[in-house]
Amino acid sequence: MRLSPFRYALALTVVVAFVLATGLVAAQQAPPSWKQGQPKEMESSTLSPIAQPPAPKAPGEIPVDKIKVPSGFKVELWASGINNARVMTWGDRGTLFVSSRVAGNVYAVTDKGGSREVKTIAKGLNLPNGVAFKDGTLYIAEIHRITKMEGIEGKLDSPPEMKVVYETLPKDAPHGWKYLAFGPDGKLYFNIGAPCNICIPPDTHANISRVNPDGTGFEYWAHGVRNSVGFDWHPVTKELYFTTHGRDWLGEDVPSDRLDVAPKKGLHFGYPYCHQGDIPDPQFHSGRACGEFAAPLIKTGPHVAGNGVEFYTGSMFPPEYRNRMFLAQRGSWNRSQKIGFRVMMVTLRQGDVPRYEPFAEGWLQGDQVWGRPVYTRQMKDGSLLISDDYAGAIYRVTYGR
Amino acid sequence: MPLARALTDIRSPLAPRFARWATAVAVSLAVLAPRPVPALAADLEAGRRKAVACAACHGLDGNSTNPTVPSIAGQVGIYLHWQLLLYRDKRRVDPQMAPIAAALSESDMADLAAFFAAQRPAPPAAGPPDPARAETGQRLAATYHCDDCHGRDFAGREYAPRLRGLSREYLVAQMRGFKARTRGDLDGAMTQAAQPVADADIEPLADYIGSIK
Fold it and tell me: In terms of CA atoms, which chain B residue is nearest residue A64?
């Protein structure tokens, strides 16, 4: 077929216009990732993420007395000076390993009877949020790889090299940092978050995955999970419970973050098509119905940023605390009135909706944030540690005595 | 050589002694002082008294007349506080600021930050660039999404510093530092944001932002 001169000119114009348009798009840089998905009508919003302080707070600057817990419980400052303290995991010999995110460090905290000694055992890592420990070996999850340090507890002053366990992982920075934990099946579980606030993610993203500790047998466990950076398994049923951060820029009060249960492999939890179990995404619903997806166990609140999940199995707290879940909520940024900045507790009840109530709060005073609780970890004696990545501290909650 | 300069300039023979002295004072204060009651609010009046030590370089009210020293009047308070922490921990490197920040307690930092944040910024020293250059700068600021964090009017926002009216020399030096990954950063956001900025775009950007009244 031959083109008439008119059609030829038209085609040429279309091609030139396309090249110019894409050229202009290329010249425009991407906005910061937290801004992605912000609709036009919210353009004048002054909300932006709470920045991480450059240094941990001095012990005298940490107002522990502002943390309120139920009657009979006490809170103390257990350790400080741990820049950006995040996930905590116990070594066999009583070392507490503590991760960080933007600080890029992994720490070892040892109890010196009345005070704690903090050593930095790795630095310069790529958002090393995930740490898990098993049989003398510490596992560390960065954005792009999972590594291990063997025999670390005997070598805190000259840490062994980090051996790669698994590195077939996306390298995206948004939601690329990981929670890491051993499941009851002995496998390492971790999240691969959506590489955006809201988008149709590649098939490789927005999930919880697992791999054997020798790096074999990678598989996806749960799908449609925007970003889960906290999970644990029920002590009796062995089912996986996890928190998820909901999308931003949909509104002050929606969508709710969620607590979910994934009792079996392969469930889809809705992202990006449906939020909080009942709100189709206005842009990315793709014609999918919310009923197609697993519904949240609890809507934990808009923008609360649920991180740590831990079932209580100790005996220090009153008997009704056994098998309760502690949820650490780092707190909101995409909301005018701040919410979260607390540790909640969840009591699962046979044939009834779970009870969901505050356990520790006070890091938010009016509109002022002085700390952000991110994870919990039970101690051997049944007391509970809470990490605070904003103040760079760890608190200990005890009961009675 | 002015006294403050003689004490803090590393080339000065007095500087190491000043740093040791300042550290000694800070340590003894920390030991002698009763355990401070954790405070959430900074003390602006205490900041005014402490700010006298900053005047030689930054000006009494935080309006600097030296183009290599930033004006800090009206700057975002938490930004000032956290920059002092970066200087103290040597993550933002500057031979003059390092010993000064090392001698400050965290409440000193909070008080100073509150004081300077409350001062009125003087109008920019630089006259407006020619309209074509201003327009280029404005376009570049939009292209690189500078206002997403620094605010539409570049008056700063939450954690991001106020940039309007800062000297061209200072702005250019900071941008080059961020691009070279040598300027201390809180969480890497600005270092990352500076990477796509073309070298040739830095000066027009600074001309535009620095001249906003």
Answer: B38
